């Protein structure tokens, strides 16, 4: 990823926004099925409810979703992220570049902490833009019987729960925590490892090196934030008992999950998350890098 020690000028910001948007769009198209699998596994409890299909792992979830709901079900809920992904990713990378100069802490060049703090702040602000889209996406992904239309879900949520913390912004505290922690590790680990590993002079080796580092950094960041992601999915998804709100607040959701399902319950969906976020994060960071350089060369 290009590292800029100064605040971006207008053309540079233009390239960063476009590069971030293009890379985000590409990543969501390729890895959305894993997001569906992750959400299904995080929503389910320790034991299946009567008549509910239970998933024992990511591969089992893939097979059962395909068998009972069809191939297209693996892309359930893709419309909300597609609608928001391009501007969201663009805005996040732009904010990340803008915030970096404020976190040098006296160092002449950006450090790993600089990248981590800037990424964490950008991810936190991003949460307030994407929470309604995340809520709609989880609602669509959780439904096993049919493909819910995006606008119908939005209208239903607004009509019954409103716009606030009980409605479109349900789960916002869990999303803020997840994004802040994930992006702190995501950008921090990536740049720390990249600066530590000698840069290869061969173009192909350099690309492979970046992919491996980005995938490893994404996986580590996922490990540190998956508990909050699980809490977010449970708060935003359908409640276990209809008409009864079991998961409402982040900390209480984590406590309840730990009490009922043990330590492993806090890491539900980790396998699917790493399968998605590892290669997905690698694709995102590396494609951002190359999209950015391409746009600069083309002077678009």
UniProtKB/TrEMBL annotation:
It is found in: Mitochondrion inner membrane. The keyword Mitochondrion applies. It holds the Pfam family Mito_carr. It is a multi-pass membrane protein. It comes from the Eukaryota. Keywords: Membrane, Mitochondrion, Mitochondrion inner membrane, Repeat, Transmembrane, Transmembrane helix, Transport. It catalyses: heptanedioate(in) + 2-oxoglutarate(out) = heptanedioate(out) + 2-oxoglutarate(in); 2-oxoadipate(in) + 2-oxoglutarate(out) = 2-oxoadipate(out) + 2-oxoglutarate(in); glutarate(in) + 2-oxoglutarate(out) = glutarate(out) + 2-oxoglutarate(in); citrate(in) + 2-oxoglutarate(out) = citrate(out) + 2-oxoglutarate(in). PROSITE patterns: SOLCAR. Solcar repeats lie at residues 11-102, 110-196, 205-294. GO terms for cellular component: mitochondrial inner membrane. Its main location: mitochondrion. Transports dicarboxylates across the inner membranes of mitochondria by a counter-exchange mechanism. Can transport 2-oxoadipate (2-oxohexanedioate), 2-oxoglutarate, adipate (hexanedioate), glutarate, and to a lesser extent, pimelate (heptanedioate), 2-oxopimelate (2-oxoheptanedioate), 2-aminoadipate (2-aminohexanedioate), oxaloacetate, and citrate. PANTHER family: MITOCHONDRIAL 2-OXODICARBOXYLATE CARRIER. Belongs to the mitochondrial carrier (TC 2.A.29) family. This is Mitochondrial 2-oxodicarboxylate carrier. The lineage of its organism: Eukaryota, Metazoa, Ecdysozoa, Arthropoda, Hexapoda. The gene is LOC108010875.
């Amino acid at each position: 990823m290009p590292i800029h020690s100064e605040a971006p000028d207008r053309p540079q910001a233009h390239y960063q926004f476009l590069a971030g948007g293009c890379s985000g769009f590409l990543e969501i198209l390729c890895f959305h099925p894993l997001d569906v699998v992750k959400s299904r596994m995080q929503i389910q409890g320790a034991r299946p409810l009567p008549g509910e299909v239970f998933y024992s792992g990511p591969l089992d979830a893939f097979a059962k979703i395909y068998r009972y709901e069809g191939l297209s079900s693996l892309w359930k809920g893709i419309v909300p992220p597609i609608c928001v992904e391009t501007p969201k990713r663009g805005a996040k990378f732009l904010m990340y570049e803008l915030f970096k100069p404020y976190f040098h802490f006296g160092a002449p060049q950006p450090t790993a902490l600089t990248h981590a703090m800037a990424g964490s702040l950008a991810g936190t602000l991003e949460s307030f833009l994407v929470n309604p889209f995340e809520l709609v996406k989880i609602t669509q992904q959780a439904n096993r019987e049919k493909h819910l239309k995006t606008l119908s879900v939005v209208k239903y949520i607004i009509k019954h729960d409103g716009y606030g913390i009980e409605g479109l912004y349900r789960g916002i505290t869990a999303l803020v925590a997840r994004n802040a922690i994930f992006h702190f590790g995501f950008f921090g680990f990536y740049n720390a490892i990249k600066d530590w590993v000698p840069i290869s002079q061969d173009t192909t080796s350099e690309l492979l090196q970046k992919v491996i580092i980005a995938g490893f950094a994404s996986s580590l960041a996922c490990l540190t934030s998956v508990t909050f992601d699980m809490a977010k999915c449970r708060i935003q998804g359908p409640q276990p008992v209809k008409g009864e709100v079991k998961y409402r607040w982040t900390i209480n959701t984590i406590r309840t999950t730990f009490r009922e399902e043990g330590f492993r319950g806090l890491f539900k969906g980790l396998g699917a998350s790493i399968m998605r976020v590892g290669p997905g994060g690698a694709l995102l960071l590396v494609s951002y890098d190359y999209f950015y350089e391409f746009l600069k060369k083309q002077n678009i």
